[in-house]
Specification:
By secondary structure, the protein is an alpha+beta fold. The chain has two helices and seven strands. A hairpin with a 5-residue loop joins strand 6 and strand 7. Helix 1 packs antiparallel against helix 2. The radius of gyration is 25 Å and the shape is elongated.
Amino acid sequence: MILRGLSVLAALMALAAPAEAHKLKLFATVANDRVSGYAFFIGGGRAEGVDWAATSGSGGPIASGKTDDQGNYAFAVPGPEAAPVTVSVDTHEGHMASVTLGAERFGGAPAPAAAPEAEPTGTDQDARMAALVEAAVARQVTPLAEEIEALQDRLRYADILSALFMIAGLAGAGLWLSGRRKGER
């Protein structure tokens, strides 16, 4: 009886794993006034030729299109955004994903108020230097963000495998107990 119950549980777990293997995820990064990224399925494979759209948190559309043959998309943000920008991907086969990028990533976050006696120090050279630093940091951070996203997906597979091995261990313990009880009779 226990063995039959554990077998049914193991079969249900095995059927649940493929559903996670096709989960759609979205990666996005911001460099200067340009958003780029890609759509991918957990377990491998990019979402090629699927619809994507970017909308402003204030409700207006920013850009839309289809991912390329590598699942990539990119678009320029027309100016500083005062609201978050949401990028969404839809395969029209039941797979959808979205990511929201905060307004501060587009220079739309309100600047702290200056003290009345402070003089403005914003020069063109300061703005250019800030843009160069931001671009350099984005180039360095983007690969790290991609690695974190991939690592999080790998951890989910480890969780699934751990659950399957735990079920196998419980089944073994159940068989051991069953055999011990038969030996006591």
